[in-house]
């Protein structure tokens, strides 16, 4: 029986900061943006990984 963990679909804020190579305070400032892809479920903030990657790509495209 395979007991491996299923693929992750969301990061917690600290994990998202680490994945993007930014500080945790920077990530929390992004969380205050209306266009940032995050959900809050019973006090837990989750950032869907695919939507986060898309959002970051769009931000990089805007800075060119």
Report the strand count: 3
**Count the helices. How many?**
3
Structural class: alpha+beta
State the low-pLDDT regions, or none: none
Summarize the structure in short.
By secondary structure, the protein is α+β, with helices and mostly antiparallel strands.
Describe the protein.
It is built from 3 helices and 3 strands, in the order βααββα. It has helices at residues 13-20, 24-31, 49-62; strands spanning 10-11, 39-41, 44-48. The protein has a 3-stranded antiparallel β-sheet with strand order 1-3-2. Strand 2 and strand 3 (44-48) form a beta hairpin. The termini are far apart.
Give the arrangement of secondary structure elements.
Elements: E1 10-11, H1 13-20, H2 24-31, E2 39-41, E3 44-48, H3 49-62
Helix pairs in contact: 1-2
């Amino acid at each position: 029986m395979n007991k491996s963990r299923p693929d992750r679909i969301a990061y917690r804020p600290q994990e998202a900061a680490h994945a993007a190579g930014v500080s945790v305070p920077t990530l929390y400032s992004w969380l205050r943006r209306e266009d940032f892809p995050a959900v809050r479920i019973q006090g837990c903030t989750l950032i869907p990984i695919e939507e986060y990657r898309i959002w970051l790509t769009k931000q990089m495209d805007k800075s060119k």
